[in-house]
Give the backbone structure.
Amino acid sequence: MSPKIEEVDLSKKHPNGWLVRQTPYTPGRMEFLAESAGAAAKPLVCAPDDPVLTMLRVTWLDAQPITYARQAFSPSHRMRLEP
């Protein structure tokens, strides 16, 4: 963890956005998977057995992981990637 983050007003800046701008990182990995909503069902307004799109992202500084994010998207979410 970056010690300087304790000085940042996180109500105005997203912690991950601040971190990747302030901390150098080498490789990163992003994975997408379909899985049951489970515990995320209530905030996603769906049933626990409904399939949702989940994104996992990890960034590294050499062998040290510096960020990890797991985000689930509602069953009706649409993601479009373009070059």
Summary: The CA atoms of residues 52 and 71 lie 10 Å apart. The beta strands are 28-36, 51-61, 64-73. The chain has a mean pLDDT of 87.
